[in-house]
Amino acid sequence: MSFEFAGLSYDEIVQRLMDTEFDDECYRQLVSSVHSPEEAKGYLKEYQGKKKKGEKDLLKKMAKECAERLPRYSGFDWTHVVFDTVIHMDLPDRWTKYIFSATSEEKDLYQLLYGFLKKKHGPQAVYRSYMFKGKAGRFADFTAARKKFLGAEVTSVSVMTKPVTLERQLEKAGELLAFSDQVYVATTPAVVFALSKKYETNPFSDAKVRERLQNSGVGLYIVDLTSNSVRLVVEARRNQVEKEARGKALEDLKKLAP
Which domains can be identified in the chain, with CATH numbers? Predict the structure, then answer.
């Protein structure tokens, strides 16, 4: 099974590493893990003489050797070895942001997420409720209200750019579920990675983060600023909402909307 973390595939992570031109350092660290300094010089010279396709092949070959020879990678394949090396590299901040789409500003995600939600729910159905949260704090950053045959359907989407806020987001989700048919958290791969380090014993998995969201009935969107895309990673559970509660929320939205 191919490696994927927070919506990013192995191929995407490696291609972004290649774009930074720090792939030489990744290869050097792999080689140094299983070969002597003298042997490493020969391997590095060969790597630096290759074009991009050849570099990827050599990176894969060396990662496979590390997976076979190093006890810490027991039970993991070569894609995990490359991922582990990348996340522990001392990269310049801008390249870490590039690979894992990191930002600390919620507003950086707004435009991309708004466009995605308009396509999904319809251009007239999505409220940018972050614009009036000060007046009605019970709403998420975005609220989609779509008319259905027998009424309406409300989807609430909260933006998260700092890992320390997950518990608060889940607490908020409980409030949103009082009038929302579905609730989502939208965040970046960088935040999921930070949360995984907190909750996981397996450093190559985001399963615990997904599990925490799923247990609360909350879905997950990954906003990838590097590829300008929004990806569904966890589908939100459909919630049974009282018609009166949903109707009151929709009335409040219409009053507050600019």
Answer: 4-100 (no CATH), 107-256 (3.40.50.10670)
